[in-house]
Write a structure and sequence with these properties.
Number of domains: 2
Order of helices and strands: HHHHEHHHHEEHHHHHEHHHEEHHHH
Structural class: mainly alpha
Low-confidence stretches: none
Shape: globular
Distance between the termini: 51 Å
Number of helices: 20
Radius of gyration: 21 Å
Length: 439
Amino acid sequence: MLEKLFRLQEKGTSVTQEAIGGITTFMTMAYIIFVQPAVLSAAGMDFGSVMVATCLSSALATFLMAFLANYPIALAPAMGHNFFFVYTICLAMGVPWQTALGANFISGAAFIILAIFGLREMLVNAIPGSLKHAIAVGIGLFIALIGFQWAGIVVYKPGTVLGLGDLHSPPVLLALFGLFVITILYTLKVKGAIVLGILVTALVGIPTGIVTYYGVVSTPPSVAPTFFKLNVSAAFTLSLLPTVFILFFLDLFDTVGTLIGVSEQAGFIKDGKLPGARKALLSDAIGTLFGTIMGTSTVTSYIESSTGVASGARTGLANVVTGLLFVVAVLFFPLVKMIGGGYVLNSSTLYPVTAPALILVGTLMMCGVTKIKWHDATEAIPAFLTIVIMPYAYSITDGIAVGFIFYSLLKLVTGKIREVHPILLIFTLLFILRYIFLM
């Protein structure tokens, strides 16, 4: 039955390999279970209810990706989107969180319509090869930077913006230990190197007090405080139209960027196109709708899925494992918190157990840089800017935007505008308008 559903032999994988990949993906994105309620509670939402909503919406969307598209790309509430939801829409604009959820619902509904008619799929296929490879590399650098920050190896420095952290502090030493373990295991071609490294790092962290053991099982919080509390009618106002557009815009390009990045790493892209892109994007859109009903912000594809791919995941079976773990996380909250929970050091929260996995994945995603046409300035310059803007601006969306704009501009001035897909030109114009009027 599993073979029929997921075509394991055709994809060159096995049940064991997919299980390892699914577990690895979950462990590197489990932090969202704790971060999401902490962020959304700042807008007045119930902490426990948001935690359950996060787990269940992540599970549903991840299952949809498994059975509709057969891809090992897990989904969960997006980092960055949650801060926009709370600190811009709710706190800065004074919009009640119920109305903000309504705006998110409208955005998700628009996504479903576009996914059904294939516009999002057309966008993925309209992106030129050089930018596809650049997006994958840029995301690799972006998540490596996040990994270094979570490890405390790279920190904010007033004079230089970024610099080395305290390499003598216990959590940083634990992260460095984990990085050594994971990279050694991976170099020796040990199956499940990443997940084994994470487990070893967690076990070492318990006696040192960096990783806290909270127990095994806890009663799930009630989802009632946020379930079906969205106010769609209040979001249907002219004043909130730009907000809905930005939610739509951010989700579109974060999703497309992540989908391309992980798919490029896994070898899913064939002849410059991603088979089944429409179904993958539809899974994302439905996940967002369900998330708003449950009580959480935009649900989107997670770049941390690349850790599962690096561990061998190639089919939706890995997503089934990841989705089940999200469901189980509701019951085994203390154990999940032990693995994915943070360690507070000097008012900063570090994730020394999962950070090393992100750093290694950043390395693995660099291979796409060799496929960029560096001899052609109209391809190389937009690709380079895409790669560097993502980590420098801390934004996948801005990296894609700058790449699109410079690609279209350089093709125009060199008389190669016919090489640019009309859809790419449309979104280039939208990006330009966004920077002129919305920022």
